Amino acid sequence: MGRWTNLAGVALGAVVAVFSHLPPTPQLSAADAPSLRGVYNALGGTMSPAWVAQDLGLFTKHGLQHSLNYLAATTAVQAIVGGTEEIGLVGNQGIDVALEGADTVYIASTAPRFIFHLYGDPAIKTVADLKGKVLAATQPAASTDYAGRMLLRRYGLVPDKDVKILYAGSSPALLTTLKSGNAAAGLMSAPITFQAQELGLKHILNVTELNISFIFLAVATTRKVIQQKPDAVSRYLRGYTEAISIIRRDKETAMKVMGKFMKTDNRQLLEAVYDEHAPVFQRFPLMTKEEVQAVLEVAKSPRAAQAKPEDFFDNSFLQKLEASGFINSLYAR
């Protein structure tokens, strides 16, 4: 099906041999296959599970008609809430809208911790040196904002008092802000880090290695979609978890797909993106209370204080996949 049907002869035989031991997905004709409208919200390495699943035909392989569209973070969540999109990769915004009454729910983790580096003025040696200076973020309540504030507190600094937070608007604009000297440091991830190095900015801290739990990115949908299309959701997660297995095992294939979506063939840049993101993707990507609670603790809504983390995610689909042996079979090669 999909890309696989375009292979012939020996190539087709090889593919069949590779996948013949996997627990079968119930097969349907293309006309009868369930469908989902999918979305991703950035042009960075965290999106690669959706990119790989779509580009290699894994959703189609598992009997799902799936479209994949790009929408910026807040717009992506609004589209899922409104039903123009049905499932996709989003950050903490799924909780923000759920606290306001939306029926969004996370069904799989993608990046359960911040993936950032702190770059800035060569005069800055540590986070503590930011006292009395300016830290750049992208937008209020964006992951750069939350990560920056959590990082400052970790080093004994009070955001907005000891360190001013300046919102640049976007990651490229954040880099421009640092270059112009309007901020002393800023949080970023590859490929922006690659550009920061070229500009002579100093690497101050690897925030990813601090393992700060947070919904940096996860698979979100709505309870309405789960109720109306449970089979489609299950098929989506088959494609999604298989994509993660390919990313973890096949660097060259993953980088090729990343390059296509990021519109670059710069190998050094793609390797930097891959090396930064691949270790974060989990073989069994369950949502955790810790990453949800971290978002609730910084959420603006007054409802967050009384909210229970488990009300915002549903691991049942992944747990059924694991129990079937499907996820283990992806690595038994």
Secondary-structure topology with pairs:
Blueprint: H1 9-19, E1 35-40, H2 48-55, H3 58-61, E2 65-70, H4 73-82, E3 87-90, H5 93-98, E4 104-113, E5 117-120, E6 134-137, H6 143-154, E7 164-167, H7 171-180, E8 185-188, H8 192-198, E9 202-206, E10 213-222, H9 223-228, H10 230-249, H11 251-262, H12 267-277, H13 289-298, H14 316-323, H15 326-329
Parallel strand pairs: 1-2, 1-3, 6-7, 6-8
Antiparallel strand pairs: 3-10, 4-10, 5-8, 5-9
Helix pairs in contact: 2-10, 2-11, 11-12
Explained architecture:
This protein has helices at residues 9-19, 48-55, 58-61, 73-82, 93-98, 143-154, 171-180, 192-198, 223-228, 230-249, 251-262, 267-277, 289-298, 316-323, 326-329; strands at residues 35-40, 65-70, 87-90, 104-113, 117-120, 134-137, 164-167, 185-188, 202-206, 213-222. By secondary structure, the protein is an alpha/beta fold. Strands 2-1-3-10-4 form a five-stranded mixed beta sheet, sandwiched between helices. The chain has a five-stranded mixed beta sheet with strand order 7-6-8-5-9, sandwiched between helices. It is globular. The chain starts with 8 loop residues before the first helix and ends with a helix. Mean pLDDT is 90; it is low at 1-22.
